[in-house]
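Form 12-C: Joint structure prediction
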Amino acid sequence: MRTIILALISSAALLSPAIAEGALTVYTYESFTAEWGPGPKVEAAFEKKCGCDVKFVSVADGVALLNRLKLEGENTSAEIVLGLDTNLTSEAAATGLFAPHGISAPKLDAALGEWKDANFLPFDFGYFAVIYDSEKVKTPPASLKELVESSAGEKIVIQDPRTSTPGLGLLLWMKSVYGDQAAIAWKKLAPRILTVTPGWSEAYGLFTKGEAEMVLSYTTSPAYHAIAEGSQRYKAAAFSEGHYMQVEVAGQTEKGAQNPLAKQFLTFMLTPEFQDVIPENNWMLPAAATSKPLNPVFGKLVQPAKVWLKSPEEVEANRKAWIAEWLAALGK
Amino acid sequence: MARAVFTALDKGRLARGHGALALILAFCGTALVTIVSLGAPSLAYADLSGLWPILRFTLLQAFLSTLISVVLAIPAAFALDQFRTFPGRGAIIALFGLPLALPALAGAFGILALLGRNGYAAQALESAGIGFKPDIYGLSGVLIAHVFFNFPLAVRLFLNALQTIPEPYWKLSATLRMSALQRLRILCLPVLRASLPGISGMIFLLCMTSFTLVLVLGGGPSAATLEVAIYQSLTYDLDLPRAAALTLIQIALAGAALAALALAGAAPDLSGSGGRSRWSPALTSNEKLTAAAIIIFSAIFVAAPFAAIAADGLRADHLGILASERFALALRNSAFIAASSSAAAVLLSVSIAAAGYTAERTGSAARGMFQLLPGLVLAFPPIVLGAGWFILAVRGGNPDSVAAPMVIAINAVMALPFALRILIPAFAAAAARNDRLCQSLRLSGFNRLRLVDFPSLRRPLIMALLFAMALSLGDFGAIALFGSDRLVTLPSLLFAKLGSYRTDDAAGIALYLTLLAAFLAAAANWLQRSSPHE
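Section 2 - Result
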């Protein structure tokens, strides 16, 4: 017991005021700051540029990031929040904690279209895709419809839309393609679903252990296996209806708006120095130009025939109802 | 009956025990009150939709998991108890302490490597030309995983209960030429029956609050426990009224289950300090054969997933993992957290065990509390503990700076029920032996601690410490909430590796965790075997 008390006292003494001179506090998710993630490289590059100290505070994922902000409210020490996706930005803006980024007409990848969000700027994006094991699946599904309606015995692992962003992505993808018929489609797909995991990690782990022939992931997943492992075994299935997009964004808080470093960081985020780090560290596609062409592996990835992306407002307004529909369709 | 006389010793023990109880209740209560009060205005209108199927599945899987674990554990414990000369018996008992220290996900992967669609069993069937593909996802997968984690625990608890049977009984049974089955029926069943409610209760609560296993092996959203719903409402929806309402329901359910079981029997004993006899029953060759078969099957069932974990783990890039700074940091943090939380758990448990003994002996009204506490703590969802304090820490400033103490405190509370199961019986035995002598020698305070209490309780204390360490090593619940890039532990590193395509590295870390746990279990077993005989 004494240990706890001592530890509590000593750590209370360590509580320091959030901003020191020439420092920038960035809230992000854990895989961004992992030693193999983009965080360390981005930090070093920006610190060299600004002569300041970047402090990362990382939480489990984008959803946890938003909840952390909601809990902290105006007391938050975050100046930059990096790692929300567009499914969360409407809710995030509603907290009133964010300030406009003030960057007009950012130069972005053509896939992102004309950027209209005044609070958030994209730093990378990707497309959801069904990844399959080419040693076991000889004729992968060519469309979402084939995946849903085929009687093939191959199984897929998906994520729970209640606890993970890819899970929500698939839900929105099905909703985009099937509309009112989504519940029926989910019922048809049900026998092919091996299990529904809480997050991406468990699903992908089950897949690479050979438990299922397919998994919901990103079109960029095969790039990891090709570049880091030299393996062509895992491939993304191109769906004729198109693929659902995920756009990861960052924004500055009201508190950050008072620190010139925050805006400098957002500007830096769209420069090649930052963007160069994204493809082979975050395994997503860069949101803006890089200094040199990407590894040729990225050029061979599935290019969606059509891109689906619902507006943040539509997602926020319907998320609960759609999840309830999903639950009813898959619950026995 | 004479009125109880409280000596200075009794008063001191009771005061320390009440202090420990108050501390634990305050720690758990603060977390609960935080969440309930934040959800309070709308608690009555909390969105409880979809609750009924969750409740039904939670209770059904917990009931079945407990039933299977316990039914299988009784013959296994009896076989291990009777066949004392079975080669490797000590190692098998140590093996049964391992699952406790394994993060649930690593255990799930181990089970799948064996029984999954691509597991060894499936591959063997395929090469034998049998076209049957095992598919354990669903209720069966959840049950298999829960039995893997809890059957060994139940065996150890039953084994300890059997070891309380006094030696003269066994000698008498030999004189009467009882068969093993007669010994089981006449000598063992009464003891097993008495310990059954406590053991079942403990396992029921562990399964009821299960989370990762249920989601990964459950096969779909219809397999979800209350704990899953609490997690979802806390971390994803940030729906505090719903989280608070669900937590209250879970605690009420667990409390009801515990109360029903408490009426029916004694608390389980993990210490193995009961009158251990060196008497070894003479078994006929048929009895030996049956016992050996039961022991071997049980050992294979528990060992096989570990063998799969080891086989997977060996493929990892060990030099790469071991050389990384992050691994060194995770190892240091895990060691520090395990050491601190187990020390805290043992200090609290000793205080409660001492007070419980005194309360029992003097017939104090407080004795119910000391008995009930171990179970109630198990019923408290660690995620609520974590979330409540997380919210307070966030409001109070910078949660990252209180993260380590919080994880330590939460792990300590989670280990309490186990540490108490070891220390309560051990303390009672020691106190019954030493109290009068010390009083007549006027030995008290620090001198008594140094000369009498510590030497006689040294082994159970270290055992409780090792048990609590193993639990803390495998914990991912608390660290998932409070962990950050600085506070990485072995389980959180395992998860991070898995979360960024590094499946082989994750398997390597699972192997290290298993080895660490094996070391702790072997140490605990060695201590148990060499515990003193009076």
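Section 3 - Comments
The CA atoms of residues 27 and 361 of chain B lie 28 Å apart. Chain B touches chain A through 64 residues (CB under 8 Å).
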